[in-house]
Amino acid sequence: MAQIQAIKGFADQFPAQSRLFEMMEATAREVFPRYGFGELRTPLMEYTDLFCRGIGTETDVVQKEMYCIPDSKGRSMSLRPEATAGVMRAYIESGVHAREAVSRFFTIGPMFRHERPQKGRMRQFHQINCECLGPKEPEADAEIICMMMEFLGRLGLRNLTLQINSLGCSSCRPVYRRNLHDWLANLDQSKLCEDCRRRMETNPLRVLDCKVPACKELTADAPVILDNECPDCRAHFEAVLRHLDAEKIPYEINHRLVRGLDYYTRTTWEVVSNEIGSQGSVAGGGRYDGLVEQLGGPSVPGIGFACGMERLALLLEGRELPAVSPDFYVAVLDDSCRDAAFALAQSLRREGFSGTLGYESRSMKATMRQAGKSGARYTLIMGTNELASGTVIIKNMESGEQREVPCADVAAGLNAEK
């Protein structure tokens, strides 16, 4: 019978890697609540229309990358390709906006995009997302960027670059789009890739995001959106930068930074690393003041960001995490001791100790070899003599010292050894 393999782009996480993810999640749950954020858990699957309306039909995500599944009534459902649209749906449907002037949520979990798997980019990937709904002031933009950079710093990441831009608003961006379209129309269209020729008509800003070297070179002198912004957008962006300067958070203004999703307005940013190859973006976000209304809710401003956990894991590879060693290993020398050994292991776990039980009765030599492989700090040896006397031998695996104690005193003996 043929062996069943994992689906391409879907990876297993064994303990060595899952511990990195646990560390990231624990850091998020430590940092974000100090800024008033609480965890929200949304479904992995939503109606496809949510993402079409929320992300934009002209994005690569909607056009090429979603996993869509029809239900029994013929309605299209999709595995979530990103988290923000689902958070907005939950926010609107639950009526939170009517109860809270400002709502702050973070989410942690898997996303799904059907794209070519490569290092740091999988078809099932994991993100940490933060969304702040309600405030329109630039202080909210600066605060959430500060929180993101603190989170990344707490992970121990240093060689990162914060790139930032402003995409304008519904008043000034249409003017820039027209100017950009007219400028692009004067280029030699045959030198643009097929995607850029299409995007030029549907969403000219996405041309600036093209990664094809020939397109980047051809559009190097494209009009800059910051030169076309209205006074309010310019003042908003200047205030964000002023707060970042005050907090001594370095940044670079990237005029080509438009992000991959259509809902962004005003402040937008990415955090990039040059240590993980072509997939250098490890976090990014921006303001999306019209998204809640676009999805059928009230006119509520919003801002948020996402961190790609697989890409963060690449940066954390080789990082020494605190050793996780079990407290005990119960070594069973004779089958007659197995019931007592099982009961001992359970009683120690109830006392808060961690450890494993040697299921198979072995010789002393084989038992100690297995105990060493377990990584436990103490081996609890139980044979026929110990069973008869109601005792256990506690062996310190580091020093090699051992002593015999009554079964009832094993927990106290382990505590005394600490």
Would you summarize the structure shown here?
38% of the residues lie in helices and 21% in strands. It is α+β, with helices and mostly antiparallel strands and 418 residues long.
Question: Your description of this structure?
Answer:
- With 418 residues, the chain is an alpha+beta fold.
- It contains 16 helices and 16 strands.
- It has helices spanning 15-31, 48-55, 60-65, 84-94, 96-99, 138-154, 173-185, 194-202, 213-218, 231-246, 291-294, 309-316, 338-350, 364-374, 384-389, 410-417, and strands at residues 38-39, 45-47, 68-70, 76-79, 103-112, 124-133, 161-166, 252-253, 265-272, 281-287, 302-308, 328-332, 355-357, 378-382, 391-396, 402-406.
- Helix 1 (15-31) crosses helix 12, helix 2 packs across helix 4 and helix 6 (138-154) packs parallel to helix 10 (231-246).
- The chain is elongated and about 90 Å long.
**Helical content (DSSP H or I, runs of 4+):** 25-40%
* DSSP summary, beta strand count: 16
Number of helices: 16
Strand content: 15-25%
Find the structural class using helix and strand composition.
alpha+beta
Summarize the main sheet.
8 strands, mixed
Low-confidence sequence ranges = none
Distance between the termini: 51 Å
Radius of gyration, Cα only, in angstroms?
28 Å
Query: How confident overall, as mean pLDDT?
Result: 89
Widest β-sheet, arrangement of strands:
1-5-6-11-10-9-7-8
Q: Outline, from the CA principal axes?
A: elongated
